[in-house]
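# step 3/5: fold
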Amino acid sequence: MEIWKNKAKVEEYRERAKALVSQMTLEEKVGQTLNWAPAVERLGIKAYNWWNEALHGVARAGVATVFPQSIGLAATFDEDLLEEVATAISTEGRAKFNAAQEYDDTDIYKGLTFWSPNVNIFRDPRWGRGHETFGEDPYLTSRLGVRFIEGLQGHDENYLKAAACAKHFAVHSGPEDIRHSFNAIATKQDMAETYLPAFKACVQEAGVEAVMGAYNRTNGEPCCGSKTLLLDTLRDEWGFKGHVTSDCWAIKDFHEGHHVTDTPVESVAMAMNNGCDLNCGNLFHFLKQAVEEGLVSESRLDEALVNLFTTRMKLGVFDEKGKNPFDKIGYAEVDTKENRALNQKVAEKCVVLLKNENGLLPLDKKALKTVGVIGPNANNRRALVGNYEGTASRYWTILEGIQEYLGDDVRVLASEGCHLCHKKAQGLGQEDDRISEVKAVCANSDVIIACLGLDSGLEGEEGDQGNEYASGDKPNLELPGLQQHVLETICSFGKPVVLVLLSGSALAVNWADQNVPAILQGWYPGAQGGLAIANILFGEKNPEGKLPVTFYKSTDELPEFTDYSMKGRTYRYMQSDALYPFGYGLSYTDFEYSNVDASANADGAVVNATVKNTGKMAGGETMQVYVKVCKDGAPNYQLKGIQKLFLAPGESKDVSIRLPKEALGVFDENGELKIGGKTVIYVGGQAPDARSEKLTGKKVSAFEFMI
């Protein structure tokens, strides 16, 4: 891991920033703390808008490669792939920035400070923004977050390629509709075990340049003005050297929603004094008054500006054009053929095969005359992209991907089936107005591909335009509208049925699990998603994704949405069997583990195994290492090691995974890491639970130690 090997260069930037700030008036300084920082022409400072997004591609600024949504990227369990994706994103980001600068465009979404990744923990499947995250596990989120940041920021010794931002610090994960007033109460144990590790890794391993505070309060303190989070933890304990930004308009929540202050001046003073350097919004205008009234010292304001200008200097924007290597990235690097190919490859790797009874998949094109493609997500572009998305130059829906793959060789019949969530597809029609068409397609097809699920109109951020559920959160885990009815109608014809789910979160497809022979989870697979899923369906590619979240049977087994205790949540603490467990995913081929062994002591552990592809297709496998510390209140077991493997038929590889001593510990009620006692290490291609064993017919290896 590289964190600014050239420390002298960083000090040079900070000294330059101090010199620049020392020449500014109070009014000029205050202006620079807003995300839309104005120009200070007398000092050679150009206008700059800090707000830009790159969650799964450069967003909201015209054409760019639209990769699969983050939750789909997480399903790859592939650290190298995450950095490859983020590298492509930062290249396009630089290309678009350079073009915007050439034409004097300093608008929003045109800068190099990308407010990504979202490393919050997807603790509850109802949360609308969960698909922006890397799932429910702190270890997986840490590993993928670190590599995503490294891809965005690059590895140049003197300059950042782009500046990444770990958000939303901390514990933010719904409900969306009360986030501006909500107080998330989390124990020291849950903070240390679950909510903070990914942020800590982003800071200490990846050297993330920015951290964004959350809207909510955490244990009584508004996150964008939290001494505990921003000063005690982030700066003092972790040694963070970058800048902190508020979430957008979050600071006005201090007095309007949280009622911890009475006036805007008090709110900006609280934010600034507790370590927030930049305001996404306009409230920091009141900093001038706060300084004049003695509520904020000008030296603290100067410190914030030095943090901000140091970031801009690391990006090279204050140096002579051409001095930093990223100035040479031209607009031709946007939306390239190579990036489209990468996008399709990534989308193929995201797909999780949840069920494949009697080997129905892959389908044999030569054995088919007519394929029926039915469902509201069959031809739904919105279900490809999720939220915080860019604009692709070309989209491939599932229907289009299947049509492209089959060409003129096989007839494709299509039906919307029903509206995604309403009772009728056509405004003037009667309820269930597409069901006769569904039946006609089924009657005339050899196999039916049902394309159901959600899109970003049903799950997303509070305030997103077009959210069907105003908050963006899901009311339950069921297929919405008439989708379940349509699926049951399809299955009543007795034809082979494949269910393709597009969603950014877990759905309780219990009936489908019992009655549909083959089920794929495709997430929001990006602009090339239809081509990728067609390749999976027809065996051109082998599904290799693993679930980064638990698929529950219903919300009945979950605690209240507002309860931030981890008890009863996620694979680490749940007591009931999952519908589909974390870490689970089938393949068209088979992988065999042999020569598995482990050694462990107080200094850490080493796990070894030989993994062989014993099937007939090349494929990807994720070797997973879990650790259970046998203490009261400890998690069931926790993911602590992953290794992604790619094996040809008959090929085997020897794998060794080293676990640091911290992986063998758990946190006590005071948030202190404790190592020692009976410890079990599990090794295999899945989690060590009974449900995974039943679904795969495989057991993982277990090794017990007294440490």
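# step 4/5: annotate
Residues 591-706 form a domain with the Immunoglobulin-like fold (CATH 2.60.40.10).
# step 5/5: archive (pending)
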